[in-house]
Amino acid sequence: MIGSHRCRRAFASLSATRASIASPTHRGLKCGAIRWPKSVSLVEVGPRDGLQNELSTVPTEVKVELIDRLAAAGCKAIEAASFVSPKWVPQMADGDQVLANLGRAPGVKYAALTPNLRGLEAALEAGADEVAVFAAASEAFSSANINCSIVESLERFKPVMEKAKVAGLPVRGYVSCVLGCPYEGRVAPGAVAEVATSLLDMGCYSVSLGDTIGAGTAGSTLVLLETLREAGVPLEKVAVHFHDTYGQALANILVALEEGITVLDTSVSGLGGCPYAPGASGNVATEDVVYMLDGMGINTGVDLDLLLDTSLYISDKLGRPPQSRVARAMLAKRS
Ligand SMILES: CC(C)(COP(=O)([O-])OP(=O)([O-])OC[C@H]1O[C@@H](n2cnc3c(N)ncnc32)[C@H](O)[C@@H]1OP(=O)([O-])[O-])[C@@H](O)C(=O)NCCC(=O)NCCSC(=O)C[C@@](C)(O)CC(=O)[O-]
Question: How many structural domains are present in the chain?
Answer without folding.
Answer: 1
